[in-house]
Amino acid sequence: MEPDTTKIWTRAEVRVTVGKLIVESLGVDEATVTDDAALVADLGAESLDFLDLSFKCQQTFGVDLPVRLIQDRRIAWRDLSVLATVIEVRYQVAVPGEELRTVAPATVGAILAHLAAKHGASIAAGDEEEVSRALAQRMLADLEGTPLDLSDLTVDRFAGYLKEDLHGPAAIEAVMSRFTVRAVSDYIVGRLAAASRLAPGA
Description:
Layout: H1 11-26, H2 47-61, H3 67-78, H4 81-91, H5 97-100, H6 108-119, H7 127-142, H8 155-164, H9 169-176, H10 181-194
Helix pairs in contact: 1-2, 1-10, 4-7, 7-8
């Protein structure tokens, strides 16, 4: 079924329709699909559910949810390739993500100590915080334009999670908890508005 790309939607219609699509894709009770419900933490969405929801949104609205982009970003974070880029820019030392993943514990501090010991990088006081912040900024920038409401996730807060444990669940949960019903609805509304398919004043 091809989407009706001539249909003009209202915000209310989008929200109701998104709720129905989530119920269908996730098999959850309609009462649990509140605006602030996180698709993963609250509604139990898994990778296949996101793909199904993305397909349904494409069929219904003609809008793709970039769920694969989010999944790809999570993989890049876990394999530490983003951190490797931050390190190369800051210290002019090219260290592959595979090497960084061998450092234990998986903290920014331990990785900087490894850089100093193995690669002769000059690490200064405060570098741990600065590298954590640079990593957080890059990771959050990677997620711009996705259906995640990151408005209240500050760089400093996110950097704190990363500084403590690069592989810990806190950073990923901080991001994925913002994949809410409202964020999905707002994302679709934004795409419809950009395509002049949102009712004026809706």
